[in-house]
Write a structure and sequence with these properties.
about 425 residues, alpha/beta, Urease, subunit C, domain 1, 8-stranded mixed β-sheet, 16 helices, about 20% strand, binds N-(iminomethyl)-L-glutamic acid, binds fe (iii) ion
């Protein structure tokens, strides 16, 4: 047994676990002050106030005890949208952006996603694994306990499979929970320029069956946006993916009112992500659905683009999740604590709203909120202990300090 005692405040506790939190409920979190938490094997077992803590010092000797005086315990962050398996980096485009080029202009002249695809093609599977491993280790140390990772820098059947095999190997070798998403329709590769429909056919007829054959993905994604894939392309790809059992999770409305949100909802997407361009029609479509609207404030921040209308969405009763979008082009960071800060500073979300958005709602957005995303009996024991802090609001407030002291995944302290 692992016992954490004298916890200044235990954050996001649930006695009746919910799958997600919507609308005005998002501004509430349950906490216990002066608390203890008991973990048995890889699961959360018992928690409560120190007054009801029953272990004598003799009994304590039989277990691993952590004294968390002055510190808080959070459920690990769930990062439901990343592209963290990629080769190299793209800081040269970053400089181009500083000089005034837009994300779309860079993409049009063969930079952007196509640049990463070229780099990935020339990188071995082992090297790709090692580069991704360094990023996984970094996000674990920042407090992330579950992460979704997409393919989409392959853009050929072989290279998409290479990426997905790397994700599978990360799943097998690291204690963090990982979900894999097939994103063959991330960009049209150079050799298919002017023949977008032929590339969509390749995704449908060759890539999806191969990915399914090797059982390499949980979900399917399409970049449904201006200059990328149309709603018609998206419908065809989602229908094909659903036949193989891949639930959709799609990129939508980052660059325009693309119709992506409506398509995602129509095909029962677990989440639609980005949503900078969300109007009344999109909110209405989401309102009547089980799809989680997921915002990626790191990308809008890094690219200097418009922010999504999050207050309008929450006021309309919608749930909202936040994720990092960790990728080399629009958000080269997987720091979920910083994402909380961006949620507060840029999107004007309350600290309680961002805590719900990076835990239970982002767990829902990656299909794991029954087992992750809160401190609840029987959930996977993925939690972190903070450094001594004055309040939970201090987490998003101190926006560049690493306040994660100890990480526990599957009930084990990560050294
Ligand atoms: O989520 N929007 C599409 N895909 C990524 C960017 C990928 C890239 O530029 O490499 C995103 O922002
Ligand atoms: Fe993305």
């Amino acid at each position: 047994m692992l016992i954490i005692k004298n916890i200044k405040q235990l954050i996001q506790v649930e006695n009746k676990p919910k799958l997600k939190v919507c609308g005005s409920e998002m501004s509430k979190i349950s906490t216990i002050e002066n608390a203890f938490l008991i973990i048995e094997n890889d699961l959360i077992s018992v928690f409560g106030k120190m007054e009801s803590y029953k272990f004598s010092s003799v009994e304590e000797k039989k277990h691993k005890i952590i004294d968390a005086t002055g510190k808080m315990v959070f459920p690990s962050f769930c990062d439901s949208h990343t592209h963290l398996v990629y080769a190299g980096s793209r800081e040269i485009e970053y400089v181009d952006k500083i000089k005034g080029l837009s994300y779309e202009e860079i993409a049009k002249r063969g930079g952007g996603i196509l640049n990463s695809a070229k780099l990935l093609h020339n990188t071995s599977e082992d090297e790709l694994y090692n580069q991704a491993l360094a990023r996984i280790n970094e996000i674990i140390s920042f407090g992330t306990g579950a992460v979704e990772i997409k393919s989409g820098y392959g853009l050929s059947t072989d290279d998409e499979l290479k990426m997905l095999r790397v994700i599978k190997r990360l799943k097998e070798t690291k204690p963090i929970t990982i979900k894999a998403t097939f994103l063959g329709a991330h960009a049209v590769p150079a050799e298919y320029k002017g023949r977008q429909t032929d590339y969509v056919d390749l995704v449908i007829n060759e890539m999806i069956p191969s990915v399914a054959y090797e059982d390499l993905a949980d979900y399917i994604d399409v970049f449904c946006d201006k200059g990328f894939f149309t709603t018609e392309d998206t419908e065809r790809i989602l229908m094909a993916g659903i036949k193989y059992g891949f639930k959709p999770k799609i990129h939508a409305n980052e660059l325009d009112y693309s119709g992506g949100i409506q398509v995602g909802v129509k095909y029962g997407a677990l989440s639609v992500d980005h949503l900078e361009f969300t109007g009344d029609d999109e909110i209405k479509a989401l309102k009547d659905s089980e799809t989680m609207p997921t915002l990626l404030p790191g990308a809008a921040f890094f690219l200097g683009m418009v922010d999504p209308p999050v207050r309008k969405m929450i006021d309309a009763g919608l749930p909202v999740a936040l994720a990092s979008d960790f990728n080399p082009g629009s958000s080269p960071s997987g720091n979920m604590k910083f994402i909380m800060s961006l949620g507060c500073i840029k999107l004007r979300m309350l600290p309680e709203e961002v805590i719900n958005a990076v835990t239970i709602n982002s767990a829902y957005a990656m299909g794991i909120s029954e087992t992750h995303g809160s401190i609840a009996k029987g959930k996977i024991a993925n939690v972190f202990i903070t450094k001594p802090i004055s309040s939970y609001e201090f987490m998003p407030y101190a926006y560049s300090s690493n306040l994660v002291d100890t990480v526990i995944l599957n009930g084990k302290v990560i050294e």
